């Protein structure tokens, strides 16, 4: 038996580019089985005629859990062409370790590297740690809060005359609120919002929110809608402060 016992193939019909921040809450599932578990998602989109765009994206997760801790690795990538020219190119690798100190309090440490050429981000690395608190959890609802310290380094592709520096090192406070609800055996809704202000300049803040609705069509096939938003109060020169990401697809589990 392979240690990855579940693969998800996601066929996306509507998509924009992947966000540089990552919503790890949809990957850190405390109800997973003891041992190894994983999934893989991919999409391919092509438009021709008046619009000539091709996109390909992939992301996956490998989890390991025992009685004392659980950890996971997330990998994501996205590539797109517009009239034969590259317009989207990004990738991300995220590692997280969560210790089951108590049922409602869990310390964690994490690290991440990524790049996003559309956002002029040549390289970003971060590491940090904090705590997550389960406020309420049962078979239907799950409400979690989290807080953490982050140190990040970014290398940005900017001209020498740009106002924003090419290399930055910042200390950030990351916090999130996550809620999920299983309305029935066939309908699942989750929502999470992250806020990441700088400690030394609180008005320099990044916000990420993601909402996910899944409707089961069969025991293995589900219809999925994901709407994400990322806001950066002080983006680099020529980069917009607001990104949105909408995905509609089918999830197949086995």
Description of the structure:
The chain has a 13-stranded antiparallel sheet, with no helix packed on it. Mean pLDDT is 78; it is low at 1-20. It has no helices and 13 strands. With 254 residues, it is an all-beta fold.
- Order of strands, widest sheet: 1-13-12-11-10-9-8-7-6-5-4-3-2
CATH architecture: Beta Barrel
Kindly state the number of beta strands: 13
Tally of contiguous helical segments: 0
Order of helices and strands: EEEEEEEEEEEEE
Cα(first) to Cα(last) distance is 13 Å
CATH topology, by name, is: Porin
Overall geometry comes to globular
Query: Which class best fits the helix and strand makeup?
Result: mainly beta
Strand content: over 45%
Which residue ranges are poorly predicted, with pLDDT under 50 across at least 5 consecutive positions? 1-20
- Main β-sheet description: 13 strands, antiparallel
Residue-averaged pLDDT, rounded?
A: 78
Radius of gyration in whole Å, from Cα?
19 Å
Q: Helicity range of the residues?
A: under 10%
Q: Give the name of the CATH superfamily.
A: monomeric porin ompg
Number of domains: 1
Overall CATH class: Mainly Beta
């Amino acid at each position: 038996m392979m240690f990855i016992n579940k693969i998800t193939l996601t066929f996306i019909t509507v998509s924009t580019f992947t966000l540089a921040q990552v919503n790890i809450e949809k990957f850190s599932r405390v109800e997973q089985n003891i041992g190894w578990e994983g999934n893989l998602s991919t999409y391919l989109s092509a438009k021709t005629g008046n619009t000539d765009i091709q996109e390909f994206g992939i992301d996956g997760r490998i989890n390991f859990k025992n009685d004392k801790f659980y950890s996971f690795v997330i990998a994501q990538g996205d590539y797109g062409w517009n009239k034969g020219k590259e317009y989207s190119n990004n990738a991300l690798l995220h590692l997280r370790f969560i210790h089951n100190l108590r049922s409602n309090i869990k310390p964690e440490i994490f690290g991440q590297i990524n790049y996003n050429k559309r956002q002029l981000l040549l390289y970003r690395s971060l590491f940090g740690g904090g705590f997550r608190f389960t406020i309420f959890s049962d078979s239907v609802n799950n409400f979690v809060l989290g807080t953490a310290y982050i140190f990040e380094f970014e290398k940005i592709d900017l001209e020498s005359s740009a106002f924003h520096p090419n290399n930055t090192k910042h200390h950030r406070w990351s916090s999130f609120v996550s809620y999920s609800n299983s309305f029935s055996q066939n309908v699942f809704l989750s929502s999470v919002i992250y806020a990441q202000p700088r400690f030394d300049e609180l008005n320099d803040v990044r916000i990420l929110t993601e909402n996910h609705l899944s409707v089961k069509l069969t025991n293995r096939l589900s219809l999925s809608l994901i709407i994400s938003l990322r806001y950066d109060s002080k983006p680099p020169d020529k980069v917009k402060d607001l990104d949105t990401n909408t995905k509609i697809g089918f999830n197949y589990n086995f």
